[in-house]
Every structure is written in C-alpha cells, then in structure tokens.
Amino acid sequence: xxxxxxxxCTLALAASFIGSAAHANxxxxxPNVGGAPAQAATPVKDEDEIIVTTTAQKRFxxxxxxxxxxxxxxxxxxxxxxxxxxxxxxxxxxxLVIRSAENPVNxxxxxxxxxxxxxxxxxxxxVAVTVDGVPLAFQARAFTDLPDVAQIEVxxxxxxxxxxxxxxxxxxxxxxxxxxxxxxxxxxxxxxDDSEFGGNFSVTGPISETLGYVFSAxxxxxxxxxxxxxxxxxxxxxxxxxxxxKLKWKATPDVVFTASANYLNGNTTVGRPFIRMTPGAVxxxxxxxxxxVVLPGVTINPLNQKVANNDRAGTKYWGWGSMLxxxxxxxxxxxxxxxxxxxxxxxxxxxxxxTAAPGAFGRNIQVGAFKSRLFTQExxxxxxxxxxxxxxxxxxxxxxxxxxxxxxxxQFSQQNWYATSGSRQIAAFGQIDWEFVKNLTATVGGxxxxxxxxxxxxxxxxxxxxxxxxSDNATTYRLxxxxxxxxxxxxxxxxxxxxxxxxxxxxxxxxQARADAGPIRPETSKDKEFGVRTQFFRRRMTFNVTxxxxxxxxxxxxxxxxxxxxxxxxxxxxxxxxxxxxxFDSAARVTHDLTISGAVTYLDATYTSFPAAQCYxxxxxxxxxxxxxxxxxxxxxxxxxQAPEWKSNATIEYAPALTEKxxxxxxxxxxxxxxxxxxxxxPETFQPAFSIFNLSAGVRDHKRRWEATLFVNNVLxxxxxxxxxxxxxxxxxxxxxxxxxxxxxxxxxxxxFRRYAGIRFGLNY
Length: 765
Hints:
The chain is an all-beta fold. It starts with 52 loop residues before the first strand and ends with a strand.
C-alpha cells in the first residue's frame, strides 16, 4: 500500500503506551530497598493525568522524560487487543512484527524491519528478550503464554550499549508481579466459543515485617483452528502450564534480597493448510500421488483449514529458571546484583511431507530437540536519579550452551546429525547523563565486551565430525542530547551503534568447507534518532514523534556463500540494510470516562547490499533469477521482507458509571498492517494489507475489585496469514522424465484467523 493512501485520520489516534499508567506491581530495575511501592515514585495530582513509567535506561523513570523510542504495554492493553501469547505482541506494538512458524525456533521477531532469519543453534536474534531484567538465551523460550505480566516494554532500535549483543535491533522487556507490603489476590478466567479456556492467579503479600512473597500459576488450552482429517483432531493449538514464586527479604533497611524461581511445561500442535496448488500436481514425482490421494478430504483454497498429516507434528517443551536479586543502598548510591540460571528443552516433530500419502513417501518425518542452558551475573551501580549528574555503571558475565540432535528421513532429504554450541561473554558498560545547563542534558554511554564461541558438529550419515572456536572483542556507544523545553515538552536526538556477535551456522549439510570458512562475522549498526515528547491539557493528552535512520553492515541472513569454488545456501554476511521511518504515539483522556489511544509506524526498510540471495521456488530468469550453480537473485535496493510500510493500532475505552457501585466497560480496538512479502519477491508469500477489529463490553466494580467482560475478536471475520511457506519443491507436474515444480503454498494461521467470541472474568482483591 502506498504511503499517501494511508488514512490520515489514524495519525490522531497514534500511541505507544496506550493510555494508562503501568501496573503498580511492575518489576522496576531501580533498587527499591526502602519497601515503598513503585507507583509512589511519581505523585499524581490529577486522576485523569496520563503517567507511564519505564526502566528503559536501567532505572525507574517517567516515560516522557526518557530520550529513547520505548513503548510500555499493560495487561489491560493486552486484553483489549486479544493478546495472550508472545507471538501476538505485534498487535500492540506497531514497530514489532512476529512471524510464526511450525517451530518457534524458525519464527522471527523483527523491530523496524530488522530480524534474524536462521535455523541453527547459537545464532542470536537481533531482538533480545528479558524477563525481570534477565535475558533469555533461547528466543523460542519466549513463545508461550504471557501469564503474571505486570508490564511489557518494547525498546526500538539498537540497545547494545546497555543490553548487550543480542539487542542490535531492539529489546522486549517482560516484567512480572513483585511482592507487595499488603495482601493481594489477582485472578483471571477465560473461555471462548472455539474451545479455548484457561486461567491464572497470583497471590502476594507479607509473611513478616521483613519477608514478602509472590506465588503465581497459569494454565491455558486451545485445540487450534485447523482440523487434521487423518485422525479428526484439531491442530495449530497449544497447551501451557507455568508457575512462578518469589521471596523478598529486607535484611536491613538498606539491603534487600529477592529470590525467584519459575517452571514451564507445554506443547503445541502443527497444522499448515495448503491454500494453493497446481491442478494435477503429484508428490515427489511419484505417479498416482495426486492431491486427492495424498490429501484426502482436503479442499485446497485460500480459506482451507484442514490438513492431512499421518505423522506427529508439533513441539513439547519444559524449562525452569532461578534468579537472585540483591539491592543495596550505600549512601546515595545504589548497587544491584542479578544472578540467574535457566534451563530449557524443546522437542520438535514434523510430518515432513505434510501429507497422508500411502507408502514411504507419505511417512517422511523430521525429529529433533533443542536444549539450552544459561548462567548470567550482572552487577550495577546507580547514582540518584534526581541529580544533575547521573550515571549507571555495570559489569556483565554470561555463559551459554546449546545442544541439537536432528534426524530427517528416511525416504528423502535425509539428515542425521548432532551439534553443540557455546559462548562466554564478559562486558563492562556504563551511561552518564549530565544536565550541564538547566534543562539541557547530554548522554554518553559505552560498552566493551569480549566473547568466545565454540561448536561441535557430528554428521552421523557421513561419519564425520568437526569442532571450532573463536574470540572477538567489540565496543558500542551511544551519544545523546535532551532538551526539556517546558514541563511538558521534551526534544532529543541520539547517535548509537549496535553489535551482534559472530556465530557458526550449525544446520543440515554442514561440511568441511563450512568448517574451514570459520565463524560468520559480527553484524554492526549505526543509528540516528530524533524525537519530541509532548503532553497537553494538564497531561491528559500525550503526543510523541520519533524519526529513526539505521544502517546495518555485514547483515547476517540466509544467502549463498561460495567457499573454495563451491556455493552453498547458508547463514552468512550478505551486505547491508537501511531502515528509516517515523513512529507516532498518542493517548488522550477525553473525559473521565473516555480514553482514546493508538500508534502508527511508517517504515522504509531496504537492502543496500544483497547481491547473491537465494531464488524463490519457481522464480524464472525473467523474474530476476540469474542462472548458475546455484542460481541467485540480486536483492540490492529491494524492500526488506517482513517489513510493512505502515502498521498501526488504536483503542477506545468508555467506562461510565452504571450505579453507585458498578461501572460499565466498553472497548473497541483496531489493528492495521500494509502488505508484506515473507520471502523477497515471492508472489506465493505475499500477504495483502488487512485490518482487524475487536469489540468488548462488560461491567466492573467501581473499585476494580472484579470485572466481567464479553468480547468478540476479529469482528468482521477478516482472513490473513501469519506466515506463508512456498513448498513447491515437494510437488511436481508432468511426467517423471520431464517434470517441473508445481505451485504448492502452505499457510500458518493466526489465532484470530476466524471471528471468535468469549468471556473474561477478573478478580483483583
């Protein structure tokens, strides 16, 4: 969709933090050793005033005073947009796009059009994910429900200086409920007309004057929106159980320890319906294996919600983690220590032929496992946040390990290998903010790190094995200037560099040439940002604008690499990319009962150098596929994949008093995304622009102690695809002697592919 075609009225609804203050129990990164609740940090003089807090700079601050592009999302906003799962966070964050896949490892998270598309272990995403300040070693671990969420922050653009090498494009910070000084119970139940049900609760309070606790648990179950005709079961669903516990001990007035532990167990089922296929196509050049034979009971069309899988397809996962947080006051300074350990395993199963074909060609499977472990230690020193000269200094250590057994076959595309990957990182970082002239603040930040990476790879079919290691030093920095023009108007500009570390591409067909080539070079970026943060009408309206322009060098992406005269498709350094655009966000408390909020992102993301990209299936020379061994296409100057030109959302809430004790709640939400390609230039992976509308109505106690809501998501029953996969290489037309690939396209359906309704009940005591 062209930029000038975008409805201008949406600019008036732009917002990133969507209307209300962050949840009172958000886990801030300020050492709150005095026991005062976090919300007490900013006094509210007007109950209609919009105040949102963030920890984007590793200290607790009002978001309007932070010279960064950051969005804060609360549980209420997640509910309004129908978001209960990590992969749906893009509905509330316009600069964020999450493309799902049959396996969370193959899913992709991108911010401002930048993400990492890779299938091997040890390859980090460009977008980091942290929970309560601790990074996840394995992004797939985040692809689950969002229970016990107090607040989510989305930091856009390179965040390498404060958050490390896995945040070269941005960061998603998930914060959970913290212990409180008073007893609180929060619980939610949900049920839908398409058989989703679940619930969660958290209990927090004091055990004694110096000891507090939190215990939370969550369970959800949804069969899915795809029917497997082979066994009559629903697939494309999920089931998750998670628990979390925390103990907070105030050892002295200036020393506080918080210990936490969590456990996760769940599974998913996979169903990728065929939505297009060439008439007469046969499976793997096998006579007689036509669509009506290999996909019995399936009608192939864009609305197809049926698959025919005769082998298991899905994932099963479990994991646990622990963390010790130490907060110490030393005079005016504050010291924070974070020690964590996390372990995760996910087994994945795929019906590789995606059919129920008779014989061996219908029983090709793919089986594997991902195993990860992570130990981290961070030590941070913070000055008082109200001083004219402020600083945050820190040391960071991380040790990560991965294992990946993998098998595919036995009929075609045979693989059988085992790989391990590990890394050790040591870093020192810091940021200084100095208000050297009244209302004018300069920022200088930097990070220096050393990382060692290693791997092993054993090909069981070829009876060969390899091992290697490498080391790298890197520095990143951030420079900024912030001017507080008035109490409610702030202008800022910044220049920052980003870094994502070197790695090895440990996937199928790893061989001696790949081993000899060594690690893939680090990916680096340079980012310029300018922004304005404003509030009007006694802070009842907020309007913010950010301009960004980022250049990436040695971009890590799937491409063609030639080693010793032989070419391979693999993850490598493809060249460069530029991403620039505008982000608008606004929220308005129109009246005491009426709130409107929204956000808009305009994005121009282009490959500045990508001369040897893989051709998409069925691409001809006339369509840009240059013949060769292997064939390639030049994507230089092409718009990046999974990077919509426009993306936006808006929410309206009307909460009038019905009686002296009851308040009505009426909400409407809208999500818009312009067209995208999931694979560059491939017409089979083109997703047209679409809009989704959600509505809800309910009633709550005027003190918000309970709430009951009826909702309808995707009210207009608009169909769209979360991902599209071109699998034409599995199907052929004509005879075995003179065959050519046929069109064969599969889709990953989103949760709201069809309209559905439900009821939510919440308790907050």
